[in-house]
Design a protein that fits this description.
With 259 residues, this protein is an alpha/beta fold. It has helices at residues 14-30, 60-65, 103-110, 112-120, 183-187, 200-203, 210-225, 236-250, 253-256; strands at 2-8, 36-40, 46-49, 69-72, 80-82, 84-92, 126-127, 151-153, 156-166, 169-179, 227-231. It has an eight-stranded mixed β-sheet with strand order 7-8-9-10-6-2-1-11, sandwiched between helices. A hairpin with a 2-residue loop joins β9 and β10. α1 (14-30) packs across α8 (236-250) and α4 (112-120) crosses α7 (210-225). The longest helix has 17 residues, at 14-30. The termini are far apart.
């Protein structure tokens, strides 16, 4: 069975989280680190934009007043407000068996572990949006934009994922929202829904901590992807690279304002 590195990190600022994901993916692609499954959260709250989204979507003054970071991901997709959630990241080399079939096939393969983990907690997740989801679309907002490769529970999007190539390697990361933070709508100048959409706390059959969610997802990934996750840590080189990326990319206005 293939051994992967498991990282369960403490909450960090948005720029730091994005820098670690990239540094990790680069190291995995070079062969300096094994394929890696990472879980983390965000402190303070952070609004992340997809790689191609325009910065003018965000009211940065309001974000600053509310103590909310604004960052840009290296992956695509739409805006997310990271608040009460768990984020996962998977990094594998480009020739890995799970990503040989192209983007759509690799999404399907990598999310099988998330499906298994949520099933173990009593849910019935499905990949792909229900037919009526288009009626609730708010362009530019991830959880209000139907997608065929993300996970839905009880006709509501529960897991939003984005994928990108980092020096040829594959990085996929995504958000499992425990409860929605409707500050997203004022920050992005969009109308809020009439009712708060359900998060995982609303649909799980029994109260579940973030730690229990990490445990279930780790086991699901292990079983469904046929891997053996081993707790590990970033290498010194990865830490140094993430420090560099905070300075020159994720914490720098030039990167944030790239479009």
């Amino acid at each position: 069975m293939e051994t992967w590195r498991l990282l369960v990190d403490p909450a960090a600022a948005g720029a730091r989280n994005m820098a670690i994901d990239q540094a990790m993916a680069e190291a995995v692609q070079r062969g300096d680190a094994p394929p890696t499954l990472r879980f983390y959260s965000w402190r303070p709250r952070a609004l992340s934009l997809g790689y191609h989204q325009p910065l003018h979507l965000v009211d940065r003054l309001l974000a600053r007043r509310r103590g909310i970071d604004v960052v840009r991901r290296i992956t695509g997709g739409a805006a997310l407000l990271h608040s009460d959630e768990l984020t996962y990241a998977i990094a594998v080399p480009r020739r890995h068996r799970l990503v040989r079939g192209g983007v759509r096939a690799s999404y399907a393969a990598l999310t099988q572990g998330l499906i298994a983990g949520l099933e173990a907690l009593g849910l019935a997740p499905e990949a792909g949006a229900p037919a009526h989801a288009a009626e609730e679309t708010l362009p530019g907002l991830c959880f209000w934009s139907p997608s065929g490769h993300e996970l839905w529970v009880a006709e509501h999007k529960m897991v939003a994922s984005a994928q990108g190539r980092v020096h040829g390697g594959v990085l996929q990361h995504g958000s499992l929202v425990m409860s929605h933070d409707l500050d997203l709508h004022s920050l992005t100048r969009t109308s809020a829904p009439n009712a708060r959409p359900p998060g995982l706390r609303d649909v799980l059959p029994q109260p579940t901590t973030i730690g229990e969610l990490v445990q279930a997802l780790t086991q699901g990934v292990a079983e469904r992807l046929r891997i053996a996750p081993q707790p590990g840590a970033l290498t010194p080189a990865e830490r140094n690279r993430s420090d560099e990326l905070v300075k020159v990319r994720y914490g720098h206005d030039a990167w944030l304002a790239r479009c």
